[in-house]
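Q: For a teaching handout, I want to show students what a protein-ligand complex looks like in token form. Below are the inputs, and the small molecule is S-adenosylmethionine. Please produce the holo structure.
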Amino acid sequence: MAGYDARLTTPENYRRWALQADGRSPPYAMLAAQVAQDPQVLSFLERLPETRRQPNLLFAAARYLLGRPADLAALRELIAGRPAELTAVMRSHRTQTNEAARCATLLPALCQLPEPLALIEVGASAGLTLLPDVYSYDYAGRQVPGTDPEAPTLRCTPIGPVPLPARTPTVTWRAGIDLNPLDPADAEDARWLQCLVWPAEGDRDERLRGALAAARRHRPVVHRGDLLDDLAGVAAAAPTDATLVVYHSAVLAYVEPKRRAAFAAAVRDVGAHWLSNEAPGVIGPVEPIQAAAGRRSFVLVRDGHEVLAATDSHGTWIAWAD
Ligand SMILES: C[S@@+](CC[C@H](N)C(=O)[O-])C[C@H]1O[C@@H](n2cnc3c(N)ncnc32)[C@H](O)[C@@H]1O
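A: Here is the structure, written as tokens, with S-adenosylmethionine included.
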């Protein structure tokens, strides 16, 4: 389960997560480290199934109930005073963070494929990462205009020989698949996505608001379904005169390794190009570029074997492989 490793204890999981949030969200890095040694919060967590103990889920659920990001005192108060409500939110919601900025790390790879493109994003959440052609980009001063001037401009630092495009690709068809699609036009879904954002992490709140507004204008379709069971059905509807691309970010870690391998075969079967933007080791052995990029990075892999780049897991930089 992404964000919680059942082979580790709950305190170990929270300590590990604190290291991931360190330098990104100081309030949450501190909170995760404090939870790791707090008997009251730990005993609350131990009463939940392992699949519901992730730091991201606890902190988002607390924010949902409190209306602001929790600190340790607020979290303890919530657990003492409203444990049933907190448990209910943690059981009914999932970690579905949808970070539009990840499009900035996918764009260079998408732009290497023959246009026009037909996109299938698996694990698309609210569809915000299904709009890579719509956003504009700023790669350390190099501007790439998107198709919607009102959509947010995604800022990303390129490192190494990143093949930056002059414009976004032409996309003639797109579809998402998610176990639980979120609706950008639904106030509750939008609120949950906002609760999943970590405090003090740059302009993520504002970017999310802009991306949700763009998704309400462009309405990318996200089908309810499983990335393995439903890929072929969705792909059958794609136009045959466009390059079919199946892609995902921050998704396959939630899927059992056996099903990941079956998914790789399913992508081949539908004849698509495949872009995977996941944590090191999720779709194969850890490559030197991933090891060098460190624990907070993802790796961008084409067609299951070609390592293109290490990428920031929240899309703020991309380091292209030499
Ligand atoms: C952390 S979110 C990432 C969303 C988006 N890809 C992004 O990068 O912003 C992971 C998403 O994958 C979805 N998901 C997990 N397992 C899935 C599966 N087997 N089939 C389809 N979607 C899945 C979850 O519901 C969730 O919306």
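A: Two things your students might notice: Residues 204-218 form the longest helix (15 residues). The chain is about 35% helix and 20% strand.
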